[in-house]
Structure formats: C-alpha cells, structure tokens
Amino acid sequence: MARKPIIVGNWKMNGTVEETLKLITELHHKLESPEVDVVVAPPFTSLYSAYVMLQEMPTIKLAAQNMHWEAEGAYTGEISGVFLKEIACDYVIIGHSERRQYFAETDEAVCKKVASAVAQELIPILCIGETRDQRASGKTENVLESQLKKALSAIPMSEAKNIVVAYEPVWAIGSGETPTEKEIESAAYFIRNYLGRLYDAPTANTMRILYGGSVNSENSGIFLRIPNIDGLLVGGASLFPEKFLKIIESRHSSS
C-alpha cells in the first residue's frame, strides 16, 4: 500500500489567534485538492479558533505542538490528549528537539506521551535526531535507534502503523544548514529498517517518515524525492502561506 505524503507546518511560538486565522484562510483559498495530507500546528491558544474554522476546510488537518501524558490532574500549565481530541486535533508533535533541549524532555517522557496520544486516538509525530557532535563522532544511527526504541517501547505492533516518525537533525533546525541527500537517505533507510526489526516489515512499510530541519520552498522538492521520505516537518517557512504552498506543491516536482 502506497504511503500518502504529509506536509506539516509547525508554527512553534508564533501566531496570535488573529494571525492564525488569517494564515489558515490564505492557505485554504490557494490550496486546491492537495494530493498530500496538509497539517498545521498553531500555538495552544489558537487551537480552538483554528478548529472552528477548519470544520469548513477539510483539506487542512490540525495538530498540537505538545501534550502531557496524563488525561487530567494537578499539572499546572499542561494540556492533555483528551483536550486535544475534543477540538478535533488529528496529530500531535512529540519529542521535538526544542522540547528536549529547552525543557529537559526525556526519552521516558516522550515514551509516555506517545502511548497517551495513541490511547486518545491522536496520531503522534515522533521527532528524533542527532546533534552535530553525535554526527561528527559517528553516533547518528546509535542515537536514532535509542530514541526510537525508548519512544515506542509501550506501543504494540497493532498500534504502530499510524505513528509518523520525523527525522530532524538537531543541528539543522533553524540553522539554514541541511544534511546531504545521501545523509538523509541513509538515516531514513536506517529508521525504516529498524522499525522493521522492532515490529515487522509490513508494519514498517506503512509508517510515514518525514524530514525536518531548515526546510524551505527551494529545497523541499529535493527532500521529497529521497527514498523512504514521505513528507516534511516545516518550521519557519510554514508561517508564510505562499512559501508553505510552494512546499506542498513541490511534491509534484519531486515525483
């Protein structure tokens, strides 16, 4: 079964409610029957307003940028998967390197969040990737294996097929630097192969793998033609409708 491409816009800590609605409106007006799953991840404060608007725009799906692993409780400032499901979020980004780096998010926390997302019928976009030092010392595959093994340790094979894995080299995020096509291809092949060992080949072949890290409208077509890459996790470029639209449309130039 062919894997449907997916393009995800992670807006990070950008966008008031007004700015979010304007961005979605502009994107929707120019988006014509995309052959890919288009997903946007606004800040928490804009999710409900985006949900209301997107009920009339089925071509765009909604994601959250993070979640807590508990359904409710004394966790001041946190958001649970139950809340996200109530406003029709389809996806949730988990384990982004900025969460790991700035908020001390551990592999154990990522594991619990992935399991909770699956339990709430949300699709996790699991982010993994190596630092510059880890790549320089030849530890990329060790890092990817460790992160995948820990993050998916609570997920049985029957639940794994819908999980999206985003390969995001930490050193490429927001830096303007990107790995070579060969480096991305090697990492994506390793991820697919490891998922096959963790589960089985048919399951691994249904799971979508994204690339993220300094993606823009000039390089997106290159990334999308790399074997085992099924889509993109886009940061800053997704804040501009014209640029994000070009990235979505670059799927055609890559095929």
Give a written overview of the molecule:
By secondary structure, the chain is of the alpha/beta class. The protein has one domain (6-254): Alpha-Beta Barrel (TIM Barrel), CATH 3.20.20. The protein is 45% helix and 15% strand. It has 12 helices and 8 strands. The chain has helices spanning 17-30, 44-54, 81-86, 97-102, 107-119, 132-136, 140-151, 157-160, 181-198, 201-206, 220-224, 241-254; strands at 6-10, 37-41, 60-64, 91-94, 123-128, 164-167, 209-212, 231-234. Strands 1-2-3-4-5-6-7-8 form an 8-stranded parallel barrel, surrounded by 5 helices. Helix 1 (17-30) runs parallel beside helix 12 and helix 7 packs parallel to helix 9 (181-198). It is globular and about 45 Å long. The relative contact order is 0.15.
List keywords for this structure.
single chain, 255 residues, alpha/beta, TIM Barrel, 8-stranded parallel beta barrel, 12 helices, 45% helix, 15% strand, globular
Please render the helix and strand layout as text:
Blueprint: E1 6-10, H1 17-30, E2 37-41, H2 44-54, E3 60-64, H3 81-86, E4 91-94, H4 97-102, H5 107-119, E5 123-128, H6 132-136, H7 140-151, H8 157-160, E6 164-167, H9 181-198, H10 201-206, E7 209-212, H11 220-224, E8 231-234, H12 241-254
